Each structure stands twice: as C-alpha cells, then as structure tokens.
Amino acid sequence: MAKLADTPFPTSFPEPTFSYDVHIYFNEKDEKDVQSASELREEIIQKFGHLEDLRVYKLHTKPIGPHPTGMFECDLRQPATFATIVPWIQLYRRGHSVLVHPRHNDALKEHTTDAIWIGEKQPLLLDILKSV
C-alpha cells in the first residue's frame, strides 16, 4: 500500500474545477472592519504575493454581484496555492467571514452546494447567479 508521502502532490484541481475563489467579507459601513479587511489583504499580498498563480483583487467597498457586503477576492489557480492560502486564512482571517468556492462554469452551484464557509455564512444574493 502506498503511503501518503509517496503520492505526488496534484498539479491541477479535479475536473471540472479550474481554480478556486476566496471571498473575504467585511461590513463596508464600519470603518474599523474596512481597515481590518484592507490590512488582511495587504498581509496576504506581503506573505504570498510571490506565488505566481495567486491573484489578489481590490477591496470592493459596496456589495457587488452575489456578495451582500464589501469584500475582496483571491483567485487560487493551483492546488499547492490552495493548500498554502486557505489554512492560513482560516487561522488569520481577523474574524471576517470567508467563502471558498471552486470555479467550474456553474456559478450557482459554485456559490452554494460546492462552497466552503469559514466563519459566519453570509446570505448571498443568489438570484443574480441564476441568470448567469
């Protein structure tokens, strides 16, 4: 029987997933919460910005798409980056709610049945996704 250590780390996600999104939410009406999220974003860039397959997007200070509050997003394009970033965010998220979901061209499923929540689950605006 092969040991886990003998198994090579995957270089791609299971089909049909091609990447993962991580959405970190904050209350855009609370200056301290906005500052906390901004600092967390900068810390992610500082610690992990060297990873070529990590994209960290801007702070959205108002709801956008299915996201009911302010948020910023990280795009994880390789399993090794997922394995590095997600556990770190789980521990150092500063109390922010976090949605982790695969990308596989079924937006509704990505944000619901295939999603992982860290912290308090947010009520997404799913009607927007039903038309995608």
From TrEMBL:
Lineage: Eukaryota, Fungi, Fungi incertae sedis, Mucoromycota, Mucoromycotina
Organism: Umbelopsis vinacea
InterPro entries: DOPA-like_sf, DOPA_dioxygen
Protein name (record): DOPA-dioxygenase
